[in-house]
């Protein structure tokens, strides 16, 4: 069968394989070490650590500028633009990080001036944002559908940081050391990306930042920048609000549930990042273009619903086996939270279409709406149901704007209908996702 597939398919399949291998390794090692850290710290201190990580993640989205898909699109369309695109992105991201670090610390100090532990942890984790600018190299390798180089770099950093966390547990290190481990991991990953880029023949010194390219990136990418912030609010504001409204223990219970739920998010990331260049290239052939999109939606629905059924039923057993009895309340929370995967998977599959059709402003509006809905629902549900309320708010806030919202705009209504049709998978449609343009 593989003898009949196109070279493009082989390349995408290999790239997807590397990405899936990367995320499977991270899922296994990350879950094992994360559970060990949770057992060592207990719900309260684990909740405090995850509050700091979640809080900084929101500012990290702002510092990273959400330009990944723009970089990939521009380099795929014009390979000669790579030096200016990469150089301008690096400078913009460095500037964003230098602003985000002090701003994040200052805002927390204004909100909770007496929470000395939180301020210390957030200050340590915030330093990791300075290394995120080097993720620009990863964007370049995505445009070339060559994930294995970034996998080598980031997995080396991940494994070293995992070993560091185990060492910290063994020596009974204080809480701040685990925050420092997160910053060390980002620093090692950045250094690793520079090394593999140079080993591959690239030279960062050849990149050239200029105002024209920078303005182009900001003009096209500002919806993605704000959309990335909105997405992080989507994914992390519940932890932050739980910490302020219900305390560290509730945040720790919720963190345990989401630790299991969110490890599966690698699936749409791996598949969609590999399929993105193929979908962009097929835009001139509408039948192939929408066939690939339908195939992507079908795959996402099958995978996410299956995941929801299995994890939903097994949630109490999973929590009991992985964590100590002090985390048992996370079982019901996990059984609800896992269903957010359906809408996350669909949203990831729609991302290439939004970018190719230049509907980034609309995608931004949907995410802002979702973030607002999430915050409002959390304000109502967290005081009544604590961590379970945050899980319910998350599922609803994903479903309403990112899926159902497509039905209320003429530009996205065809995608909404395509998503409905994709509920019943079509073997022929699934086969089109990686088929060459001439097929």
Could you please describe the fold and organization of this structure?
The protein contains 16 helices and no strands. Helices cover 80% and strands 0% of the residues. The model is unreliable at 433-439 (pLDDT under 50). It is an all-alpha fold. The protein has one domain. The two termini are 16 Å apart. Helix 1 packs across helix 6 and helix 9 packs across helix 12. The chain has helices at residues 7-64, 68-77, 82-111, 116-126, 136-143, 147-170, 175-199, 211-246, 248-262, 266-281, 286-322, 330-337, 340-356, 360-402, 413-421, 427-431.
Looking at the structure, what is the overall shape? Answer: globular
Q: Can you write the helix and strand succession as a string?
A: HHHHHHHHHHHHHHHH
Number of domains: 1
What percent of residues adopt helix (DSSP H or I)? Answer: over 70%
Uncertain stretches of 5 or more adjacent residues? 433-439
- N- and C-termini, Cα separation: 16 Å
Class per helix and strand makeup: mainly alpha
Determine the mean pLDDT: 82
Largest sheet: none
Q: How much is the radius of gyration in Å?
A: 21 Å
Oligomeric composition of the shown chains: single chain
Beta-strand residue percentage: under 5%
Q: How many E-type strands?
A: 0
Structural descriptors:
globular, mainly alpha, 80% helix
Helix and strand topology:
Blueprint: H1 7-64, H2 68-77, H3 82-111, H4 116-126, H5 136-143, H6 147-170, H7 175-199, H8 211-246, H9 248-262, H10 266-281, H11 286-322, H12 330-337, H13 340-356, H14 360-402, H15 413-421, H16 427-431
């Amino acid at each position: 069968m593989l003898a009949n597939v196109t070279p493009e398919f082989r390349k995408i399949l290999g790239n997807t394989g590397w990405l899936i291998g990367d995320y499977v390794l991270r899922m296994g090692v990350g879950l094992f070490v994360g559970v060990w850290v949770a057992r060592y710290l207990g719900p309260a201190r684990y909740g405090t650590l995850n509050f700091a990580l979640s809080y900084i993640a929101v500012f990290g989205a702002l510092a990273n500028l959400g330009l990944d898909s723009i970089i990939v699109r521009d380099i795929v369309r014009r390979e000669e633009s790579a030096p200016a695109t990469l150089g301008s992105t690096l400078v913009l991201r460095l500037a964003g990080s230098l602003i985000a670090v002090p701003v994040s610390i200052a805002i927390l100090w204004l909100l909770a001036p007496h929470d000395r532990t939180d301020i210390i942890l957030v200050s340590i984790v915030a330093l990791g944002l300075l290394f995120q600018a080097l993720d620009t190299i990863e964007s370049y390798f995505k445009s070339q559908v060559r994930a294995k180089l970034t996998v080598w770099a980031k997995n080396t950093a991940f494994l070293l940081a995992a070993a560091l966390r185990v060492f910290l547990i063994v020596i009974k290190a204080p809480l701040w050391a685990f925050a420092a481990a997160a910053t060390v991991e980002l620093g090692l990953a950045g250094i690793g990306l520079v090394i593999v880029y140079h080993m591959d023949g690239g030279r960062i010194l050849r990149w050239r930042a200029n105002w024209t390219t920078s303005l182009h990136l900001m003009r096209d990418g500002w919806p993605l920048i704000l959309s990335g912030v909105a997405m992080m609010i989507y994914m992390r504001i519940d932890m932050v609000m739980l910490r302020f409204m219900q305390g560290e223990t509730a945040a720790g219970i919720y963190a345990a549930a989401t630790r299991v739920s969110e490890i599966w998010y690698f699936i749409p990331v791996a598949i969609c990042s590999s399929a993105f260049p193929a979908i962009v290239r097929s835009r001139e052939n509408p039948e192939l273009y929408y066939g690939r999109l339908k195939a992507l939606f079908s795959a996402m629905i099958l995978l996410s619903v299956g995941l929801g059924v299995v994890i939903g039923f097994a949630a109490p057993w999973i929590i009991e086996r992985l964590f100590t009895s002090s985390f048992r309340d996370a079982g019901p929370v996990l059984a609800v939270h896992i269903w957010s995967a359906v809408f996350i998977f669909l949203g990831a599959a729609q991302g290439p279409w939004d970018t190719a059709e230049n509907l980034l402003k609309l995608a931004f509006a949907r995410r802002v709406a979702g973030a607002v809905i999430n915050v409002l629902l959390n304000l109502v549900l967290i005081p009544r149901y604590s961590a379970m309320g945050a899980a319910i708010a998350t599922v609803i806030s994903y479903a309403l704007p990112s899926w159902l919202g497509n039905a209320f705009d003429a530009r996205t209504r065809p995608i909404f209908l395509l998503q409905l049709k994709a509920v019943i998978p079509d073997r022929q449609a699934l086969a089109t996702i990686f088929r060459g343009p001439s097929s």
